[in-house]
Amino acid sequence: MKAIFARLAAAAVILSLAAPAAHAQAEATPAGTVQEASDSTGQAVDSAADAATEAAEPPADATAQADEPATAPAAAPAAVGATAAVAAGTVAEEPIDTYYRGRWVGMLAISGSLNINSTSQMPGQPNGLSLTFNTALDGVADYYRGSHEWRNTFAWNVGVTRSAAEGLWVKSIDRLLLQSGYYYRVNEWFGAFAELQLRSSVLPLYIQRPDAVDFCSAPGGAGDCNDGAANFVESTNSFRATGGFQPITLDERIGVYVRPLDRRYVTMSVRTGLGAQQFFVSDNAWAEVSRDTNAVIVRELSNYNILGLLADARLRGANKEETFVYGTDLGILFPFVDSKRQELRDLDISPLQVDLSAFITFTLASWASLDIRGTAFRQPQVTGSDWQRSLNVLLTFSHILVGDRDASREAGTTLRYEDFVGADGAP
Q1: Separation of alpha carbons 38 and 45, rounded Å
Q2: DSSP code at position 98
Q3: What is the distance between the alpha carbons of residues 231 and 208, in angstroms, rounded to a whole number?
């Protein structure tokens, strides 16, 4: 009796689990289990067991699916999770190095400075009003792509001064610079370059004096200058030295560079190659050599062209905050082709050109800076054995019209190697 009740209970359990087992493939009850348990039971129990067994058997295709690896169900949660992550904005896009894709960067800025000084009855000071006004227009347009860099620079700085002693307006500075350079990085310390540069003055230059004085051409001293001298030019109080956009100096350079020092805030490059220079000026153009109270000595300018070997070294640096930037340059051009070689040889003057320059810029605010720049240039084809020198100290107020200012941007320099490194750390 106990066996009959046990079999009836087993059959009831099988019937209750038959429907869920048809959908649960992995947990389906084999048919042999029920049949082995029913030896001597009644027809009802056997029928119930048979029905339960039939219900528990999965379809043929379901059995085949159960034998296959469950890859699809495992991939589905990952796909759903990725979709949710993208919808939530948590998946970062793959970084794209814009240096390899190529990009233009640029800036156009205007700046100016004004100095007003008025004195009266002050010992050691001239009576009257002195004014100095300077303005500058600076622009850059650079293109970067991979190991290629194309840099273009435009700068024009012009200033006028009115002295209290003489009451004359004179041009104090007038410099125009156009430069375009291509740079190719072979590796982190070696590359090639090609540059084209134009320098000129935009406005005419007049040498003005309160009263008429004698102008004589070099060589010769101011003490020997008079209207009877052989080198006499003219007597006037306003001598036209050069016209507009005079003179024009073109420089072409091509070669290779190495970077023995390349740190985040200081870089040094050494370059060598070929350099060419052309100097164009109109007839009857002059440059002042010296002056005294009654005479001015001027040197007549003429065209020339040279080709030679060049070598230069450049140092650039900045502090961590880039509140000041500094640099110094040394350039040498030794001509082996010189249209003025014979003239210089007769004067026993070496044709070697030497260019020294240094600058430091203090950033006082986003719109104000203090600039100190000095140059010394030996250009024997123009000034003989004399050096051309200049020193400028300017407190400048500027406004960026277009683009962003790069404090470390200097004409003719190459990008840092790190700027070309991609996300994976490889160039």
Answers
A1: 8
A2: H
A3: 20
Nearest Cα to Cα of residue 279 among 386, 199, 195, 390: 199
The pTM is what?
A: 0.70
- What is the SS3 assignment for 127? coil
Task: Give just the sign of the alpha carbon dihedral 380, 384, 385, 391.
Answer: negative
For residues 314 and 268, the answer to whether their CB atoms sit within 8 Å is yes
CA gap 304, 317 in Å, rounded: 36
With H, G, I as helix, E, B as strand and everything else as coil, classify residue 210: strand
Cis peptide before 219 (omega within 30 of 0): yes
Cα 227 from Cα 230, distance rounded (Å): 8
Beta bridge partners of residue 328, listed in sequence order: 315, 358
Distance CA(390)–CA(383), nearest Å, equals 14
> Among 286, 291, 288, 300, which Cα is nearest to 213's?
291
pLDDT above 50: residue 303? yes
Specify the DSSP element, H or E, that contains 6: helix 2-23
- Measured CA to CA, the distance from residue 318 to residue 151 in angstroms comes to 20
**Lowest-pLDDT range of 67-71, 201-205, 368-372, 417-421:** 417-421
Q: Which two tokens stand for residue 403?
A: 């683009």
Could you give the CA distance from residue 283 to residue 107 in angstroms, rounded to a whole number?
37
Q: Crossing angle for the helix pair 2-23 and 43-56, nearest 10 degrees?
A: 20
Q: What is the dihedral of CA 60, 65, 68, 73, to 10 degrees?
A: -170
Of the candidates 184, 202, 192, the residue with the CA atom closest to the CA atom of residue 271: 192
Q: Which residues contact 391 (CB under 8 A, 6 or more apart)?
A: 373, 374
Q: Are 256 and 193 contacting, i.e. CB atoms less than 8 angstroms apart?
A: yes
Give the C-alpha separation, 196 to 377, whole Å.
19
Nearest to 148 by CA among 185, 103, 110: 185
**Residue 74: CA atoms inside 13 Å, Cβ hemisphere, count?**
4
Distance CA(179)–CA(286), nearest Å, equals: 26
**Distance in angstroms (rounded) separating the CA atoms of residues 246 and 286:** 10
Q: How far apart are CA 147 and CA 183, in angstroms?
A: 8
Instruction: Give the pLDDT confidence of 272-300 residue by residue, as tens digits.
Output: 999 999 999 998 899 998 888 889 999 99
At 250, which amino acid appears? Answer: L
Side chain identity, residue 11: A
